[in-house]
Amino acid sequence: MHAITIPEPGGPEALVWAEVPDPVPGEGEVLVEVVASAVNRADLLQRQGFYDPPPGSSPYPGLECSGRIAALGPGVSGWAVGDEVCALLAGGGYAEKVAAPVGQLLPVPQGMDLVTAAALPEVTSTVWSNVFMIAHLRPGETLLVHGGASGIGTMAIQLAKAVGARVAVTAGGPEKLARCAELGADILIDYREQDFVEELRKATEGAGADVILDIVGAKYLDRNVQALAVNGRLAVIGLQGGVKGELNLAALLGKRAAVTATSLRGRPLGEKASIVAAVREHVWPLIEGGRVRAVVDRKVALADAAEGHRVLESGANVGKVLLVSPAGG
Prior knowledge:
Layout: E1 2-5, E2 16-19, E3 29-38, H1 41-47, E4 64-72, E5 84-88, E6 97-101, E7 105-107, H2 121-134, E8 142-146, H3 151-162, E9 166-171, H4 174-182, E10 187-190, H5 196-203, E11 209-214, H6 221-227, E12 228-236, H7 249-255, E13 258-261, H8 269-282, H9 284-288, E14 296-301, H10 305-314, E15 320-324
Parallel strand pairs: 8-9, 8-11, 9-10, 11-12, 12-13, 14-15
Antiparallel strand pairs: 1-2, 3-4, 3-6, 3-15, 4-5, 5-7
Helix pairs in contact: 2-3, 2-8, 5-6
């Protein structure tokens, strides 16, 4: 098969489409013929040499895919060769074939084409696990999403609105904010021109956000705590703004607030399977019912993954950038 390899870390040009050995599904795995994958921030970090795959996982980038089951490994039941699926992966999505743990498979939602389904596994698992399973966003509460126009952001807006929450977003510029508004965002903050802490206070009559989903990290840590409501929950899922920040514990205590930080890729298989099962139970009906949709910015050929990386690094995208394999047309 062919896959995107990284002979040496570097810029987008470091991604090389090369012939590599076919993967063999192990115990509890299926072999998926990949139709599409998607670009995630973790892929950019891996390309740059800053985020190695977990031990035992594929060396190739790609944290999600869609495709058809080509073979079943030992001990697999409930799935059949030919089934159309999408999958959460620890790596290997940028390839024509990938071995995926059976607990991380999802059926393609009814009414969705197979290529578009590649936009779902990572964002739905990340948002549902952090915003709902950990931070317990409830109807009537306010969620602040940083990077509202990103793949994560566009999904977080829709899921929060679907459960009856109020949504505030930060994004860069009026065009991206307009797209967030189309998805249901109530409070629109241009982080280039406005102070999100002050804007959120004004929009919530001083209350702040009950839950904040943050992709920035250290740069926003202190301001995020300021923006939290009493009993607020800050969920950090990205470090685009650095890894070390100063935390005002007195402010945190005063608000009886909590800060959590998670990543999805390195979690044990059992934890991932539980998240994927929750996504199938709670999110798939919303997608199949038309209340939540995959937001796809563009599709590029898998062999030209470098272009997908350039788009994500430029920040030009709204929603997901998909990589379509030769099997996907």
